[in-house]
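> @MW can you paste both from yesterday?
MW: sure, first one:
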Amino acid sequence: MNYNFYFRNFLIWLGLVPIGILNGAARQYLYSTYVSELTAHQISTFTGISLFWGFIWLANRKWPFGNRIRAIKTGIFWIALTIIFEFLFGHYAMGNPWKVLFHDYNIIEGRLWILALLSVGSLPWIVRELSGGEKITSEFKQLKK
């Protein structure tokens, strides 16, 4: 097990936490009074995905995700961390009932948060591919020599 890989990706994931919190605060204080709760949730899902994209793009420039397998492992790791954080923090720190936490995953009712979770999981691979993939990985290896 490569502990440096997981530690580095944990640190990058920690950067997603304040982005998510600030995105939720923006929803609450900037536009939730002008649109319905569902619309505000949908808007914040897409603004969150956009903000995550930008942060992950910058993170990849600083610390490339490496090969495809590492990028996919990073995404799976981040999905697990996000779910654990959302449910433990949401329930125990924020006091939200489990029913409320699970409600945000009900896509049939127009709740789109699952898309943000899937984005967190797929963006390491997508960003890696869009930013040059193998080319960046080989250049990074050259720099390390």
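MW: second:
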Amino acid sequence: MRVNFINNFPVPRLSSSIVKKDNASIQSDKAEHGTISDSKYKSNKVVPYIIGASVLIASAVFIRKLCKSSSIRINDVPIVEDIRSVGEEIKPKFLYHMTSKENYESICADGILKKSVFGDGVFLSDKYTIKNKYDDNTLMRMIYWYGGYMPNYGGPVSQSHKVVILKFPVNQAEENLFKWRPIKLVDMDNSQLSDEWLNFTDIGKEELMSSWQRPVEFIYKNEIPSDKLKKIAEIDLSQLPRRNFISKFKELSNI
């Protein structure tokens, strides 16, 4: 069966086999009842199918209106019509902070996650960047950096080579304290990117969607009390297999 698209919804179209069957039926009726105009027979035979197709079209229009007014999901993918709804759907509800085990122990002792020396806030990542947007080489370098294998490149000193992952909820009342931007990566074209931080509330805007498709990073413009952070994983990098290092890390990260 062939399919036409009306307002982006699939509507079945009459197949050639149905048309052939109608022609054969017309010839049979001609033989039995005498000559009657083809157009009359075709009209009588095809009209029910046209009515059926009209019903399907009306249903598609109704579903389209329904999608505008509610959140319908197919395979956990939202069907939405306006960009404001898209923005609400893709805004992360949780962000993640990766650090060494030694740094985590300092956070617990101090009762606070301090601002980074590399920026005016706490750097965070979203789930989709960690699990889907990073290429394996970039993610591996980042994991080794936090795991204490790259102190000469500004990474933390860690004797344990254990990475701790902390989960931080995004409070809607504090959205103005969160910023984001696409990350400049060695193996990607960064010519269109700047170092400017974008507003969290602008996530989902049409003009920013190309930036959102890239790996992104977040910054929270305040320090974070340790009781607002939840430890969700502690991973010993020295115990991960070399061959499946990245996939095993993702599995153990609980993100």
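> thanks! Residues 38-69 form the longest helix (32 residues).
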